Amino acid sequence: MYVLRRCWQRYRTLGLLATLAIGSAWVFRQTDGAIVFEIYQRVSVPFESDQAREQELVNARVLELQQRLVEVNQENLQLRELLDYEPQVQQDPTFAPVIGRSADRWWQQILLGRGRKSGLAVDDIVMAPGGIVGRIVSVTDETSRVLLISDGSSSLGVTVGRSREMGVLRGKGSNRAIVEFFEKLPDVKEGDAILSSPYSQRFTSGLPLGTVVAVNLNASPAPQAEIEISAPLSSLEWVMVYPKPSVPLPTESAEPIDPLGESLQLD
């Protein structure tokens, strides 16, 4: 007993340290080092820079938005299944050179160096970098004539990308066009993107047309917005031609009504 007491007094400190070391090693192994990491985080918080904290907040926000995007995509898929929706398949375009343009009809029509032999047909969609150019109105074996969206006789059903407001785009003989809306107080503002309408019979839905540069809600007979056409209509040299969309036409009951109260068939 006396020997044990003397050993304890002599090696007490060493024994406590050994016990503490063994216990710490056991805890570290059982928690896979989590407790050490947590202690480090608590101790290092006062020494972290503001930039590091801001970056952490940004990363958390990005993660949140990614999760929301996944949820929205999932909801979108479910809605498509409920509506039995089949997305339109965009075929490969035919590239065609612009070979003719009259000075007095500069903003009305262009002539393409491709025609029936290249597979082009009336009502095919003509596009350029930036968006819609127009549609083919006549073809020969070697050429095609295109009615530009800037022509005063051209009309096209459109929608506001942000708010989904519907209207009709009409050309002004320049790189600007006018959109007349169906609603008396449409939700539209400068900077909004204008796209082809889901109700359009001649153009695929969602094709870009331009950007709103001015809004006049007091215009008569309907509220208007002036847009800047995004395709470079004044300097076209080559265009892309897509086949006209093979989608079911809207029924008569689904035809929109124009601001004058008459049935309107959208192009």
Helix content: 25-40%
Biggest sheet, spatial arrangement of strands: 1-2-5-4-3-12
Distance between the termini: 107 Å
Shape: elongated
Largest beta-sheet details:
6 strands, antiparallel, barrel
How would you spell out the order of helices and strands?
Answer: HHHEEEEEEEEEEEE
Approximately how much beta-strand content do the residues carry? 25-35%
Q: What is Rg? A: 34 Å
Q: How many beta-strand segments?
A: 12
Q: Regions with pLDDT < 50 over 5+ consecutive residues? A: 249-265
Structural class: alpha+beta
What average pLDDT do the residues reach?
77
State the helix count.
3
Summarize the structure in words.
This protein is of the alpha+beta class. Helices cover 28% and strands 27% of the residues. The protein is built from three helices and twelve strands; from the N terminus they run αααββββββββββββ. The protein has a six-stranded antiparallel barrel with strand order 1-2-5-4-3-12. A six-stranded antiparallel beta barrel has the order 6-7-8-11-10-9. Strand 10 (208-216) and strand 11 (224-229) form a beta hairpin. The radius of gyration is 34 Å and the shape is elongated. It starts with a helix and ends in a 25-residue tail after the last strand.
